[in-house]
Amino acid sequence: MSRRGTGTRATHQALPPAMRDAVDEFATHLAQVRNRSAHTVRAYVADLVSLLDHAVRMGCAEPADLELGVLRSWLAKQRTTGAAHSSSARRAAAARTFSGWAHRSGLLATDVAAPLATPKARRELPVVLRADQAAALVEAPGGGGTPAPDGAGLPAPRPEAATTTLPAAATATPPDAASATGAAPGSATATPPEAATTTGAVLLRDRALLELLYATGARISEVCGLDVTDVDHGRRVIRVLGKGNRERTVPYGLPAQRAIDRWLTVGRPELAGAASDRALFLGARGGRLHPTMARRIVAGYARTAGLPPTSPHGLRHSAATHLLDGGADLRAVQELLGHASLASTQIYTHVSMERLRAAYRQAHPRA
To answer: 330 lies in a domain?
Structure first.
């Protein structure tokens, strides 16, 4: 059977044969027909295995035995075990998707999940950086984008009881340079002289990465998936392949342009190797930069700059909020972020309103 990254064989072997076949066919449908991402397929299939396992315990031997009461019992059990509202909503969506597919495929006489109410997930407002905090973050590598002579990068996190302050250009390696120098990530060990050039290249990459994340509001997986040819320097736009293989064009500004140009002309040639191919951002060993390492890079520089814990998605939230604060049209922001629904973008209007209320309470004499 051919399917993308579902990883389900080891998790559903205990199900009856008819149930196992349904899981495999559903995974193939999600990946190849619905064009869902590997992450979504894994999540939905895991939910389906949990549902069918619960159904078997209630006496069901095949998908045709599923009833609405079984689905409701399964969701109720999830809630009693402390599942978050967002998890319950996703599981209900998985059950509805499977039920509709099974009915169309002839595995179910009726769409038993059609009357199933989807728990409403609580949408918490995302934490966003102020504009000055975002600027401090993107300018953190190398103290404004220029690598220190000794290849200085991220200082080690300061212990709570520490009484001294690390200098801005502490002799520590950036998170990704540790793999090239042999130092532990975030350590305050001085960079060996022979690794200084590589570390300088890493700093240039980090600056370009942070600038591009904040300038475009793109997802970290989208930015790490960029090739050199996806950057249009003349028009200052990048071509991004987002969720559902939907392609979009996103503009970026002059600071990002300068950082990208310097990375491509000075930094990338230092790290490029046989494994680099056309990847825009490279790891310390020359391969495509992995999103996990990119998250560590963002978190490390946020810590160094004394900012709240920040992730690449936090920069995405910040970019969207700052665009709206600056008067950008909501639908334009939707297009920039690659949201399929305007409802996903509207949460940032609430963030902006909260910031407006906070400013009003602080500044108005009769607030």
So the answer is: no
